[in-house]
């Protein structure tokens, strides 16, 4: 890019909420009524007709205003910053944000503040990819290994992964990348779907959506479990009958169980040949996951969507506590920290199957998985990206699924930009949907009061 003197002049934040709880979309054993939401951020610059950077943190309703406030707290680190410098080295901003000597007390490097950092850092990567005229997956795959290593914070990691080891992984990973890029553009990246499996769906809906998923080319579906064992047995039986023996069935307990319960419950479902059990216990319990892994084999253990940071992932891998690493594009501090996790997983030879769904998680995480395939591990064997078929129409560059595969995005950026009309409609509480909803509820209460 030609040098400019452009600066960041605004960090716009929005509390975006969708009423998904009304159809029980997203329902699971721990979160029965989620309203999928996003603390959305837009970076604006003073360059005429210049692209903007878009990012967000995903939440599920109440508390999204807290997440927005956390993003707002990072404004001083961005206003007036050189756009050229930001895009040339997002890692510098990442280190400044996680190293803020007062804000870091709210973590450090975990929770709401860390997710806010991820939203802002991802917005910078979106801006960088837009300015380069490339989708993020290609920007990362084309980058020099030395530059990528410089984007990673190796503090607290070097007992498991050193910069030299990471550099060697990336140098080896480049071999054959051109041919893999052609294959990716032709066939896409394998996906699995959770759309049939929400806990609030009845058996007829589960069966109908599972049959449709197989017809659409998916070779793996996932069911939410953990609220009632008899219900889970019935639902797993219905799902297995719908998809047949040749399609993988994954299970997700969303942290519901203690360790002994996780082992008992998973083994009680073993007759349905589950491929993995996801988040069987607390996302922070490394040794608990290791015990579950021993107790439920050959069923695999998957976790990571709620892992707070790269250090937690490091411990899961060091302890042999996980068979499937699940990164999340907005839980940790953005692209930089997810690069660290991808490198750790590659070092330990554990496949990464990203968590997605939510608001825009599919749009983001596809870029990271495609980079991993092209320029790091070189394989999609036993690797799939989660897919959920809702809320994509609110994005300017939504995911495209063909024959059970993510189609590689071609538009520049990180696929993070929401449609202006969706922002206007679903910003809480003043968007047109929410104001109309509040008015309807108030009218119903008045009618009810008169009837009483």
Automatic annotation (TrEMBL):
<protein>
    <recommendedName>
        <fullName>L-fuconate dehydratase</fullName>
        <ecNumber>4.2.1.68</ecNumber>
    </recommendedName>
</protein>
<keyword id="KW-0460">Magnesium</keyword>
<dbReference type="InterPro" id="IPR018110">
    <property type="entry name" value="Mandel_Rmase/mucon_lact_enz_CS"/>
</dbReference>
<keyword id="KW-0456">Lyase</keyword>
<dbReference type="InterPro" id="IPR029065">
    <property type="entry name" value="Enolase_C-like"/>
</dbReference>
<dbReference type="InterPro" id="IPR034610">
    <property type="entry name" value="L-fuconate_dehydratase"/>
</dbReference>
<dbReference type="InterPro" id="IPR036849">
    <property type="entry name" value="Enolase-like_C_sf"/>
</dbReference>
<dbReference type="InterPro" id="IPR013342">
    <property type="entry name" value="Mandelate_racemase_C"/>
</dbReference>
<dbReference type="InterPro" id="IPR029017">
    <property type="entry name" value="Enolase-like_N"/>
</dbReference>
<dbReference type="Pfam" id="PF13378">
    <property type="entry name" value="MR_MLE_C"/>
</dbReference>
<dbReference type="InterPro" id="IPR046945">
    <property type="entry name" value="RHMD-like"/>
</dbReference>
<dbReference type="InterPro" id="IPR013341">
    <property type="entry name" value="Mandelate_racemase_N_dom"/>
</dbReference>
<keyword id="KW-0479">Metal-binding</keyword>
<feature type="domain" description="Mandelate racemase/muconate lactonizing enzyme C-terminal">
    <location>
        <begin position="203"/>
        <end position="299"/>
    </location>
</feature>
<dbReference type="Pfam" id="PF02746">
    <property type="entry name" value="MR_MLE_N"/>
</dbReference>
């Amino acid at each position: 890019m030609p040098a400019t003197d452009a600066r960041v002049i605004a960090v716009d934040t929005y509390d975006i909420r969708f009423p998904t709880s009304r159809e029980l979309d997203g329902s699971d054993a721990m979160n029965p009524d989620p309203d999928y939401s996003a603390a959305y951020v837009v970076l604006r610059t003073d360059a005429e007709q210049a692209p903007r950077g878009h990012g967000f943190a995903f939440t599920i309703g109440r508390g999204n205003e807290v997440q927005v406030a956390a993003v707002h707290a990072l404004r001083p680190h961005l206003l007036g910053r050189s756009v050229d410098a930001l895009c040339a080295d997002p890692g510098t901003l990442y280190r400044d944000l996680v190293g803020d000597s007062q804000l870091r007390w709210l973590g450090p490097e975990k929770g709401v503040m860390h997710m806010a950092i991820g939203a802002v850092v991802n917005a910078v990567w979106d801006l960088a990819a837009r300015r380069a005229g490339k989708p993020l997956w290609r920007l990362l795959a084309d980058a020099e290994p030395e530059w990528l290593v410089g984007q990673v914070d190796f503090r607290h990691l070097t007992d498991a992964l050193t910069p030299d080891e990471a550099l060697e992984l990336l140098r080896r990973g480049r071999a054959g990348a051109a041919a893999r890029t052609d294959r990716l553009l032709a066939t896409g990246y394998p996906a699995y779907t959770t759309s049939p499996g929400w806990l609030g769906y009845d058996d007829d809906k589960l069966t109908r959506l599972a049959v449709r998923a197989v017809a659409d080319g998916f070779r793996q579906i996932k069911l939410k479990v953990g609220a009632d064992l008899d219900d889970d047995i019935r639902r797993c039986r219905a799902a297995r009958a719908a998809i047949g023996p040749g399609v993988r069935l994954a299970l997700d307990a969303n942290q519901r169980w203690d360790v002994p319960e996780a082992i008992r419950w998973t083994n009680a479902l073993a007759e349905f040949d589950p491929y993995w059990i996801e988040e069987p216990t607390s996302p922070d319990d490394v040794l608990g996951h290791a015990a579950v892994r021993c107790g439920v084999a050959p069923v695999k253990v998957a976790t990571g969507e709620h892992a707070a940071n790269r250090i937690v992932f490091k411990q899961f891998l060091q302890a042999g506590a996980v068979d499937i690493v699940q990164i999340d594009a907005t839980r940790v501090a953005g692209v930089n920290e997810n690069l660290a996790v991808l490198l750790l997983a590659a070092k330990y030879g554990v496949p990464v199957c990203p968590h997605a769904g939510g608001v825009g998680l599919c749009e983001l995480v596809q870029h990271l998985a495609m980079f991993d395939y092209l320029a790091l591990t070189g394989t999609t064997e036993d690797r799939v990206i989660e897919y959920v078929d809702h809320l994509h129409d609110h994005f300017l560059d939504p995911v495209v699924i063909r024959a059970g595969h993510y189609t590689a995005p071609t538009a520049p950026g990180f696929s993070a930009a929401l449609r202006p009309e969706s922002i206007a409609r679903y910003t809480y509480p003043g968007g047109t949907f929410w104001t109309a909803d509040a008015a309807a509820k108030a009218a119903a209460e008045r009618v009810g009061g008169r009837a009483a």
